[in-house]
Amino acid sequence: MAGPSEAADATTTGADWRSGLTDTVVRSLSAARAATGELASGLGTALPALLLLLWLAVTAVTSVVGVGLLMAPAPLRTLHSLAARERARLGRRGPEVVAPEPPPTRLRPALVDPTTRRELRWLVRHATLGLALGLLGVLLPLVAVRDTLFPLYWKFMPGNMTATSVGYGNAHSWPDALAVAMLGLGWVFIVLGLGPGMARLQARPGRQLLAAGPETDLSLRIVELTATRAAALDAHATELRRIERSLHDGTQNRIVSVTVLLGAARRMVARDPAGADALLERAQSAAEQALAELRTVSRSILPPVLADRGLAGALSGLAANCAVPCRIDVDVPARCAASVEATAYFVVAEALTNIAKHSGAEHATVTAYSRGGRLVLCVEDDGRGGADEDGGSGLTGIRDRIAAHDGTLSLTSPTGGPTTLKVELPCGA
């Protein structure tokens, strides 16, 4: 007869086994649901890929008589646009697919362009295998639900109607209906087991062929990195000059003033105590102002609020202090590198300062989120627009800070507004 401890161990083991089984089932269902969504979204680019493939085939045939040569730029532009759409889709559902340099749209350069060749190879695979996998990803869950629930509605179906989703057999009794339900369970297991693999297989050509390949001109990348390093060094030197100016023109002068006032008060304390007390009071006020300026300079180097409250709290503080009503929307679950968060903070601070000074806006919005290992910032306002990077608005300094992290900046500011500043930074480690 088992003792109490053995019974407790058996109960614990049974509970652990049930908990592990539940976790496995939940993970399988979650993976199958995500895979179904990926396959369905892939179908959204596979169908246009099939139509584009037919269009290119017609263009190739008609080019024999010369007509297709005039039509070539349009399908090539469509190909590049569809490839960019596929990169964006893959980036939303996994690691970002880094785009190569913009390929040509004229026929003769496109024939020898490696990026266009890779996009054409992707088009053929995605219009055939990708389309088939997308259709299966959508139909299999529907078939599984239809057959699994068959015993609930088989009585209401016409007697000569096919019972199974594969178009075979009729149900005339409950055992027949239960057999169809067992087939439905088989479809369910197929979806759970093969769904994630089908999604990976559908996405593989896009990730392999649409990313910047080894044919990319490395000399251009070297030039870009050299310019980025130069911009980073310039930004660092500019920041050091700003800090030196702040300390020399503000804090240092106030400390000198404190020293002079203390010396004068020491000499006056014997013959004019009241005057000495007034000088000490002025010296104390100057010391407090110097301390406040030191705090301001230290915060401009690395704001303590970033370490205390993270990026979301720091951006909320900027929005609260902005002269223009500002809404903050931050969705960054994991912390980025400290230098990246500091750059994001200063970019938003400079952008909000520009909005308050120059835009005439009534509302501003700051959005921050992480995607594919990159931190994306978007600052929008409803002001008059017309922002010019070369007009002394501070955008040059923002771009230099971003270039130091190999990030990107895009500005849309038509006359009359609105203005949208979008920044992408690698999250770092």
Biggest β-sheet: strands ordered side by side in the sheet: 1-2-3-5-4
Helix-strand makeup class:
alpha+beta
Describe the global form. elongated
Largest sheet: 5 strands, mixed
Overall number of strands: 5
Instruction: Kindly give the count of domains.
Output: 3
Unreliable stretches covering 5 or more consecutive residues:
none
Over all CA atoms, what is the radius of gyration? 33 Å
Number of helices: 12
Q: What is the mean pLDDT?
A: 77
- C-alpha end-to-end distance: 57 Å
Strand residues, percent: 5-15%
How much helicity do the residues have?
A: 55-70%
Q: What is the element string, with H for helices and E for strands?
A: HHHHHHHHHHEHEEHEE
Task: Describe the fold and architecture.
The chain has 429 residues and is of the alpha+beta class. It has three domains: 15-209, no CATH class; 220-301; 308-426, Heat Shock Protein 90 (2-Layer Sandwich). It is 69% helix and 8% strand. The chain is built from twelve helices and five strands. It has a five-stranded mixed beta sheet with strand order 1-2-3-5-4, covered by helices on one side. Helix 3 packs across helix 5 and helix 10 (304-321) runs parallel beside helix 11 (338-359). The two termini are 57 Å apart. The mean pLDDT is 77.
